[in-house]
Amino acid sequence: MALTTDTKKDIYRTMFLAQAWEQALLRLMDENLAPASYHPGRGSEGTEVAATAALRPDDYLLYDHRGMAHIIAKGVSLVELFGDFLGNDLGTTGGLGAGIVHVCKPELGVLGQSGTLGGSQLIAAGAALSSKLRHTEQVTMCFFGDGAANRGTFHEAANAAGAWKLPLVFVVQNNGWAVSVPTSYSTGGTFHDRAIGYGMTGYEVDGQDPFAVYEVAEEAVERARSGGGPSLIEAHTVRLTGHYASDPDGYRSAEVRAAYAEKDPIVKARLMLLEQGLATEDELRGMEQTALDEVQTARDKALTGTKPGAERLHQRVYV
Amino acid sequence: MREITYMQAINEAMAEEMERDERVILMGEDVGAMGGIFGVTTGLFDRFGPDRVLDTPISEMFIVGGAVGAAMTGLRPIAELQFADFIWNAADETYAKMSKWRYMHGGQVTVPMVLRLPEGATGGGGAEHSGCPEASMLPHPGAHIVVPSTPADAKGLLKSAIRSDDPVAFFEHKMLYATKGPVPEGDHLVPIGKADIKRPGTDVTVVAWGRMVSLALQAADRAAADGHEVEVLDTRGLRPLDVPAILASVEKTGRLLIVQEAPKSGGGASEIAAIVAEEGLDLLEAPIRRIGAADVPIPQNAELERFAIPTVDDVQVAIKELLA
């Protein structure tokens, strides 16, 4: 799919929807209706939405813990997402999830998330191996941060993917911070340069420019689909908030945080659409109001869900 | 009935299931052209080709984690760790991913895979190649724990494991690979989680699994010469554990000895002893006895190894003491 005006607008709409959903979730936390263990995704919507937009509906997604924009972009309904955070039967896991959830929607290719960050890299390599052996032309995309890129799981998954030319796209969201530790302190070299060592194609892209991310992701996805092997995309992004919802974020100076605030991908994409004459102010406002209404409707519906009782505990352990 | 080895039985089970279901693949270190370092996968690469039998890099996390990803997306992998001790190299992938992903993602995906783990002391393997870590999976629910003691059970349990939609950890003892026994040809299936009375008796119950079953049977022969009838109950694994069968046997004999090859502390024997103490204390006419390896890392010196792991003599003495 080329990056058409419609695709650009759809990426913007989905980014806006994801942040509106997140604001509504944070409100549910303030209201003490949802547990306050969440890793906000503000700042990373550009990478998460635009890279996911390059996938087909039957492609596999292993998302990361930061925000829900990639999951929303893959098509999981807002009601189900709210349901997972509220821990009720409307969620994808039927009431298991709460806070740091494990949203799963196999029919949309959403396979889940590893609680131990980095674990998804190996599952993703296995899913990519599976589609290669089954000749289905499905691509697997696996998101993780600069922190999880330093786990040994990455090495084993990347090596297998490179050796066997697996249809896999790794997306490293490098926001410069692994909780409180700066990447400059924790990491030797660059993430995109690692690709060479594993026989992958490496990309470096500005994660705050979703349209640039889309073009890179589309190239990587099509290479994977056509048998050209795996890629690693390093997207430079920012974390506009603390690591988790109530993180006071004291380890980052006011100057650093102020500089990040200038790099909001949603603001940037909105400006580009207007300046390039691809959308009018009225059109964007209409789009935004629709998204806000959609979130409100989903919130209202999700709050009607039922929380499971103790009987849920023993369901679905074994087949 | 024809007799084949435990190793041939495992190989035959894999070949038959790979023939039966093209979704079954095999992946592990040296399992391809070489046929595995113990020869267990001999011939499978030639028969099924490189898309069904995959030599992996030395990457245990990928072997197990990759198999989980493949199992979630339409394949039915048999993953082999070259030694059961390598379970620690792939700990998160085994105890969490393989065992927990179905449950924690709401049961929407299944993880139909078998993890094969060659275990046990072999005379000089050393502390990191001689373990029997099956009980380490007990506090991590989600996967079945299967440990066959005979060629027939090895074939029938492995075929059931490959057909199961649940993940199965399949511990095969390296010292049993060359042992022979009668094995039915064709579709021989043994249900997972059902204990087997390998020798009926009335005086003492010896519960064992894996290689320890053969020690129990030898000790039972010796006890018979003394006029005592020992019942040998093979649990065939640790999860599901056939508690009703264990309690029924203890009800009959009133005396219980549990034998495991792993170090005595924190193993399957402790778990079984606790269950019988909770649910069957009034059935017992003597205190429960456990036998396990010494609580030391297994020395590489084969002579010292023999002192560390349980012997037939140990079992025989314990039986005598229980009857005294």
Task: Describe the structure concisely for a colleague.
The complex is a heterodimer of chains A (319) and B (324). With 319 residues, chain A is α/β, with parallel strands linked by helices.
Largest interface comes to:
A-B, 41 and 39 residues
At the third CATH level, what is the topology name of chain A?
A: Rossmann fold
- The tally of beta strands of chain B, per DSSP, is 14
What is the CA-atom radius of gyration of chain B, in angstroms? 19 Å
> Distance N terminus to C terminus of chain B?
40 Å
User: Helix count of chain B, per DSSP?
Assistant: 10
CATH superfamily annotation of chain A: Thiamin diphosphate (ThDP)-binding fold, Pyr/PP domains
Helix and strand sequence of chain B: EHEHEHEHEEHEEEEHEEHEHEHH
- Domain count of chain B: the total is 2
CATH superfamily placement of the largest domain in chain B = Thiamin diphosphate (ThDP)-binding fold, Pyr/PP domains
The unreliable regions of chain B are none
Q: How helix-rich are the residues of chain A, as a percent range?
A: 40-55%
Principal-axis shape of chain B: globular
Distance between the termini of chain A: 40 Å
Mean pLDDT metric of chain A = 95
What keywords describe this structure?
heterodimer; A: 319 residues; alpha/beta; Rossmann fold; 6-stranded parallel β-sheet; two-stranded antiparallel sheet; 12 helices; 8 strands; 45% helix; B: 324 residues; 2 domains; 7-stranded mixed β-sheet; 5-stranded mixed β-sheet; 14 strands; 36% helix; 20% strand
Description:
The complex is a heterodimer of chains A (319) and B (324). In chain A, 45% of the residues lie in helices and 11% in strands. Chain A starts with a helix and ends in a 17-residue tail after the last helix. With 319 residues, chain A is α/β, with parallel strands linked by helices. Chain A has helices spanning 5-30, 45-52, 69-74, 78-86, 119-133, 152-163, 183-186, 191-197, 210-225, 254-261, 265-275, 281-302, and strands at residues 60-62, 110-112, 140-145, 168-174, 177-178, 181-182, 201-206, 231-236. In chain A, helix 1 (5-30) packs across helix 2 and helix 2 (45-52) packs parallel to helix 9 (210-225). A six-stranded parallel sheet of chain A has the order 2-1-3-4-8-7, sandwiched between helices. A two-stranded antiparallel sheet of chain A has the order 5-6. The model of chain A has no long low-confidence stretch (mean pLDDT 95). Chain A has one domain: Thiamin diphosphate (ThDP)-binding fold, Pyr/PP domains (Rossmann fold). With 324 residues, chain B is of the alpha/beta class. Chain B has two domains: 3-182, Thiamin diphosphate (ThDP)-binding fold, Pyr/PP domains (Rossmann fold); 196-323, Rossmann fold. In chain B, strands 3-2-4-5-7-6-12 form a seven-stranded mixed sheet, with helices on both faces. In chain B, strands 9-11-10-13-14 form a five-stranded mixed sheet, sandwiched between helices. A two-stranded antiparallel sheet of chain B has the order 1-8. The N and C termini of chain B lie far apart (40 Å). In chain B, 56% of the residues are buried. The chains are: A alpha/beta (319), B alpha/beta (324).
